[in-house]
Amino acid sequence: MIFTPIKWVSPPLGWFKLNTDGSSLGNPDLAGGGGIIRNHVGDWVSGFSRAISVTTSIQAELRAFKDGLKLAIDLEILNLEIEMDSLVAVELVNSITTPNAFLSTIVADCRFLMERFELCSLKHIFREANDCADLLAKAGCDQALDFISFSNAPAYVLEALAFDISNATRFRLISS
C-alpha cells in the first residue's frame, strides 16, 4: 500500500476544464448531476446542478457529462479538458465499441457533443480531485428545479473551490 497525492490541476493557458459528477441516493434512486467549468487559473467560469429523478448512478454520471458539454458549447469554449470520477462512464465514452443498448443513446450524444470542440480530452480522476462537481451533483438530488445554472459559485462549493486552487494536496491509499 502506498499513499498517492491527489490534486485538482488547472488546464493549460487557452483551455478550460469541465469537471462533472452524478449522484444517486441508491442504485437506482433519486439522482442529481452537477458540473463546473474553470479557466486556466482555476477561476469559476460557470457551473450547474440538475435534478434527474430516479435513475442509476451511471446514467446520472452520463447525464451530468452531457449537460456539462452543452454548457461548454453554449459558452463557445474551443479547447476543453474533461474530468470525471466515474471510470465506467469515461471508458464507455472513450471506447470505440457501442455500449449496451440501455446506455447507447446518451453515450452517442456525448461523443457527438465532444466533436464540437476544436480540442477535447476526457480522463478519469479520483473522487478527491472532483469535490466541486460532487457537491453540485448532490445538490441536484435535493433541488426542486430541474436545472440550475450558476454564473457565480454557490456558497456551498466555495471551500472546495478554494482548496482546489490552493497548494494543498489530498492523499489516497492505493494498493501496489
Automatic annotation (TrEMBL):
GO terms for molecular function: nucleic acid binding; RNA-DNA hybrid ribonuclease activity. This is RNase H type-1 domain-containing protein. Residues 12-142 form the RNase H type-1 domain. Signal peptide: none annotated. It comes from Fagus sylvatica (Beechnut). Coiled coil: none annotated. Pfam families: RVT_3. Gene3D superfamilies: Ribonuclease H-like superfamily/Ribonuclease H. InterPro entries: RNase_H-like, RNase_H-like_dom_plant, RNaseH-like_sf, RNaseH_domain, RNaseH_sf.
